[in-house]
Amino acid sequence: MRKVTIIGAGLVGSLLATYLGKRGIKVDLYERRGDMRKEQVDAGRSINLACSTRGWKALNGVGLEEEVKEAAIAMHGRMMHSISGDLTFQPYGKEGEAIYSISRAHLNKILLDEVEKNSKIHFDHKCIDLDLENATVTFQNEQTKQQTSCTSDIIFGADGAFSAVRETMRKKLRFNYQQQYIEHGYKELTIPPTTDGEWALEKNFLHIWPRKQYMLIALPNTDGSFTCTLFLAFRGEKSFENLQTPQQVSKFFEESFPDIIPLAPNLLDEFFANPTSGLVTISCSPWQYQEKIALIGDAAHAIVPFYGQGMVSGFEDVRILNDLLDEFPNQSILQKYTNARQENGDAIAALALQNFIEMRDLVGDPSFLLRKRIEARIQNLYPGKYIPLYSMVTFSHLPYKEALSVGKKQKKMLDEILQISNIENIWQTEKFLEIIHKFITVYQNDVFVRK
Amino acid sequence: MRKVTIIGAGLVGSLLATYLGKRGIKVDLYERRGDMRKEQVDAGRSINLACSTRGWKALNGVGLEEEVKEAAIAMHGRMMHSISGDLTFQPYGKEGEAIYSISRAHLNKILLDEVEKNSKIHFDHKCIDLDLENATVTFQNEQTKQQTSCTSDIIFGADGAFSAVRETMRKKLRFNYQQQYIEHGYKELTIPPTTDGEWALEKNFLHIWPRKQYMLIALPNTDGSFTCTLFLAFRGEKSFENLQTPQQVSKFFEESFPDIIPLAPNLLDEFFANPTSGLVTISCSPWQYQEKIALIGDAAHAIVPFYGQGMVSGFEDVRILNDLLDEFPNQSILQKYTNARQENGDAIAALALQNFIEMRDLVGDPSFLLRKRIEARIQNLYPGKYIPLYSMVTFSHLPYKEALSVGKKQKKMLDEILQISNIENIWQTEKFLEIIHKFITVYQNDVFVRK
């Protein structure tokens, strides 16, 4: 791998270019849009996103963890808002564990600066043709309309959920492909800073207004604002379809989210100005072709956003690919990369869909919160052995596939524990330790993480 | 529905145009290729295909059953060829029931002639743009390169497994889509007529050389030839990958299909001249958009060929759509059509995948043949009530969905019956009737077809 072309200078493409550039590989990074550092580029995508352990490790590998973390806001847990305005807190992990809200644009700019230390970025270059057999890609300059072709040892498609590279593979190869939309869409709204320039809600949390079939969430930004996202079905009784007039929207928010109305003065304007977008899961195989072409990040595994693992799983693709280059210095590694990542891509896709149910419905349920507390107690009793599913995904580097399978067994055990009569009153007692010990004796091979 | 555009003048598009034209609807039928009646069009597709009960009913609805049947060859059952050349016969259904081998090109020509009695066909017109909201399609004349647009009440995409209409829906709508290839590919070969101009194998059968992981089949043509299809994995020990040289191919056929070597003198030339093609299942939803655009036939549900239901299921789409037009004369019917057909499309896709296992592996197994004989006996004992799965699919108009679900229960019952000790010796006895009766008493609600 001496000469590499990367298509897509989003978060994953830029991080991949950074990694490969630092290895001394000649990298050309192509991006359809203009340079976001110079012009306002409407990315049409989420304003902020979540970074967690897997993401930090990948950024650390190119020395960027500190710089990015300085621009991020820690969120220690979920803050649930009931309709009557009551707040309930649920920590994400152990003391000190947090996920981080980070500006997509800011992080992307940091990465682009880093790429340019070793490699060239070609903005305004749209991929219009791809010759898979010869690893040759043709671009059209969106400004000059001039076309150029470029052949390299390897072409990476890091061009997102609607990847042009993947589309070529889908049409020209025996390629398995699935795109599946959920019934819900999303719309972004804003809670601006207070007149004092402060955050209008508690800053260090991911706020959730869980309403069973739908929900609103809010993540903090460094400027004092929160970006809110409404997740709601497209059709049905409570749906975007039934929110056509300002009156309908006002009534919906008054009934469902009364506490955010005073905090979001531009709610109605934003509601009608901002797009309503769909939520898709995309899976495909193979991720590579003839050791010449490979997919990475959303191009290989676009997932719904409910586990906060979209960017992070793509960053982990990059980190693992880099590890393979270390381990097999003179070998082809694209099939090895695919073998290492494909099942994990499927697993995080499934986990992300599951977590939507948890966020919009279960977190508002007292028995779910009890379950989380009992699980935290078990985790404390068996440190490093019993790790709750959320923590395996968010605060560990265990393969997603393992997290998914161990998590299923944990759920089965917890289901049984929660059947114990009077559990809500005894779970904090000494006697309860014996009960837990009995369960763990039966289940440990299934619910403990493998070393 | 007064003005309709149909894209694709293959078998399903032509039949649909015939039905709608006879209703007095103004139909324009567009086809990317030239007129196959005037020029040799390399369709790149199977030379012959199977027609059965559902297909005949659909053809009967436009008065074409007799004409088409005259050009078809009845196949009363499967003729299995063992490696040592032994023949085993397994009937498809009851006495007199058969499936028919028909030339794709001949059938298509009959349909095109019929379309032109009421409607206009535009050959050499490629769909290059589709405006879903306005039901406007733009074509490019492949000869003159001139572009024309056409707006109608409804546009049907009958443009096959790689449908351009479906591609537009996939990209522009929240559209669920899956394409899944099996590990096997196929290659067509020919057994020419004998020097006397006769069929070199028994004419009225579908011949199968089942070899567990792969198989060869042969269907008769009216000119005395058979079209053979080799189904074989792309990779692995026995695979197309390992058939690169004439020596390898000769050795493979000598070991696997020795009895066809003397019958197929051009085997090696054809093997290297003919393409090796993949086998894909495509499913999608929605099949319609805003009562303006709809998918039909392979464009909506491309399936693998192992149940002989590819064309037939598309013809049934057309027949059901026509029934809906009769039933709801002044209503929109595309959503009703989708509701009626979509689950059946998924069911026949699943059945077709299952039948590959049966054809390549089970039909060579004595216990499978015993199972079929016992099942035929049960069918005789409960006429019109117990119909074996193959017959529900092939010789009835029961929804595929029902056939799939009843067939699963039948399999369960037969599995139990085949566990009875000494079954191979007692199944023809009087006493066995009591045993069957007991099973049916337990299972009848599940294994009988609903009236």
List the helices and strands and how they pair.
Two copies of one chain form a homodimer.
Chain A: E1 3-7, H1 11-22, E2 26-30, E3 48-51, H2 53-60, H3 65-70, E4 73-75, E5 77-81, E6 87-91, E7 99-103, H4 104-115, E8 120-122, E9 125-131, E10 136-141, E11 147-151, E12 154-157, H5 164-172, E13 176-191, E14 206-210, E15 215-220, E16 226-233, H6 246-256, H7 267-273, E17 277-285, E18 288-289, E19 293-295, E20 301-302, H8 310-327, H9 334-360, H10 366-381, H11 389-394, H12 400-418, H13 423-426, H14 431-447
Parallel strand pairs in A: 1-2, 1-12, 2-8, 5-14, 12-19
Antiparallel strand pairs in A: 3-7, 4-7, 5-6, 9-10, 10-11, 13-16, 13-17, 14-15, 15-16, 17-20, 18-19
Number of domains of chain A: 3
Q: Give the overall average pLDDT of chain A.
A: 95
End-to-end distance of chain A = 33 Å
**DSSP helix count of chain A?**
14
**What gross morphology of chain A would you assign?**
globular
Using the CA coordinates, give the radius of gyration of chain A: 23 Å
Q: So what's the oligomer here?
A: homodimer
The first-level CATH class of the largest domain in chain A is given as Alpha Beta
The description of the largest β-sheet of chain A is:
8 strands, mixed
The CATH architecture of the largest domain in chain A is 3-Layer(bba) Sandwich
**Strand order within the widest beta sheet of chain A:** 6-5-14-15-16-13-17-20
Total number of strands of chain A: 20
